[in-house]
Write a structure and sequence with these properties.
The chain has 142 residues and is an alpha+beta fold. Helices cover 34% and strands 34% of the residues. The two termini are 23 Å apart.
């Protein structure tokens, strides 16, 4: 089930955020994600967040964060990855947005393939000032 984030979700959402970033971005120091944890936790309530709950378990196994038409990220627990949860979350926001943009690290090949499969196209290349890593800017239009 997909629903809008509520205040009581923050601890689950943040744990998924931290674990997924560390797992998906092994090329970036874990300390980077840990040092940004508190700032992201403060920003989460300002974003448009949709969570995916495991049926009948009231447990969140993933979420997508938006800032207008910009996808801040799709974060899925490792045990729920490759089971359609990310696609379900993305399909949910595609219903309410006509354009979506995001940045993805070039070394995160799994994510790039996912977004290409979901009809995003690479628009440009840049470098993330915070990490020094190359990124692609990708866009989807309905």
């Amino acid at each position: 089930m997909i629903r809008k984030h509520v205040a009581g979700d923050i601890d689950s959402v943040m744990q998924i955020w931290l674990n997924t970033n560390i797992q998906a971005h092994s090329f970036i120091s874990q300390d980077y994600w840990k040092s940004n944890f508190d700032m992201v936790k403060e920003m989460i309530p300002l974003a448009e967040i949709y969570v995916h709950e495991v049926d009948n378990a009231n447990q969140i196994d993933g979420f997508i964060g938006l800032n207008n038409d910009y996808i801040e990220g799709i974060f899925i627990k490792d045990v729920a990855q490759s089971k359609g949860t990310g696609k379900q979350l993305l399909d949910q926001v595609k219903k309410i947005k006509s354009t979506l943009k995001l940045n993805v690290y070039q070394k995160n090949e799994r994510a790039i393939q996912f977004y290409l499969r979901e009809e995003f196209s690479i628009q440009s290349e840049c470098v993330d000032d915070n990490t020094g890593e190359k990124e692609f800017t990708m866009v989807w239009k309905c």
